[in-house]
Amino acid sequence: MCGKEDAVVVKNLSHRYDGNVALVNVSFALPKGSFTAVIGPNGAGKSTLIKALIGLIKYSEGYVRVYGFDPLKDPESVRKIVGYMPQRESISMHIPLRVRDVVLMGRAARKRLGVLDDRDVRIAKSALEIVGLESLWDERFVNLSGGQQQRVLLARALAVEPKMLILDEPFSAVDVPSMEKITETIEIMRRERNMTVLIVVHDVNPVLHYLDYVILLNKRLVAFGEPHEALNENALLDAYGSVIRIIVCEEGYCHPLIGDRHA
Ligand SMILES: Nc1ncnc2c1ncn2[C@@H]1O[C@H](COP(=O)(O)OP(=O)(O)OP(=O)(O)O)[C@@H](O)[C@H]1O
Ligand SMILES: [Mg+2]
């Protein structure tokens, strides 16, 4: 059921939290090395979908495979190959750890016994460098600003040296220059290592040019396809319940006016 070249296969995935419906019959497949954005309104089930992929929830129904692994039966194997960054609201601001400990968790996730060596430290430092915070290596995580904390958690995901990056609203408190540097680095890593990227965003425009696919979600899969297919006004109206205008510019890229760019 899982194609050899597919990083992710999701079939008829549904989830309810105590009767509260979060996902209904969602199906799609993502090839290895692809870059996909998940968009949709608040409460659309975006985080739930991601949690189902990495075995953080026991979904109600359906079939999910990540690089051939079943996240319900084998979440450890999935977490060894996936670098995951949770949504900001779910990050504890009281972690009594230093930045280096947080980033090194990404290395420990790969190891059975969690014993770290110099190579792990090197990789963790370079991940912190990618997000531009290498000077904060010894700082206490709790003393960082919200955006800096997010960037450290992104570094933790990168430190896994993952086959797949799954990021839940990674840029919500991150300044524009950092966001641009991070997206460029992710794109380079994707090209060099054939890394698969799945990213939840509210504003798709900053990553639009990198995207192979867009998943438009509102509990059910409203649209899935290449950006110019999925980002059409009817599908956006269907997902968001209000008219979202599209401006078409530059080489046929369709830019929807979502997120910060509401007119
Ligand atoms: N732990 C939980 N217990 C009960 N209901 C939940 C829980 N987590 C999410 N839900 C509900 O499931 C639905 C989908 O939530 P989810 O967090 O997946 O949405 P989202 O698309 O990520 O939204 P946002 O854009 O606000 O992050 C919402 O109605 C939410 O209230
Ligand atoms: Mg969410």
Describe this entry's structure for a reader:
With 263 residues, this protein is α/β, with parallel strands linked by helices. A hairpin with a 3-residue loop joins strand 10 (246-249) and strand 11. The relative contact order is 0.16. The chain has a single domain (6-261), classed as 3-Layer(aba) Sandwich (Rossmann fold). The mean pLDDT is 89. The protein has a 6-stranded mixed β-sheet, sandwiched between helices. Strands 2-1-4 form a 3-stranded antiparallel β-sheet, with helices on one face. A two-stranded antiparallel sheet has the order 10-11. Helices cover 31% and strands 26% of the residues. Helix 4 (118-130) crosses helix 5. The longest helix has 18 residues, at 176-193. It binds adenosine-5'-triphosphate and magnesium ion.
Blueprint of the fold:
Layout: E1 6-17, E2 20-31, E3 35-39, H1 46-53, E4 61-66, H2 75-81, E5 82-85, H3 99-108, H4 118-130, H5 146-159, E6 164-168, H6 176-193, E7 196-200, E8 213-218, E9 220-225, H7 227-230, H8 233-240, E10 246-249, E11 253-256
Parallel strand pairs: 3-7, 3-8, 5-6, 6-7
Antiparallel strand pairs: 1-2, 1-4, 8-9, 10-11
The structure holds adenosine-5'-triphosphate and magnesium ion (MG).
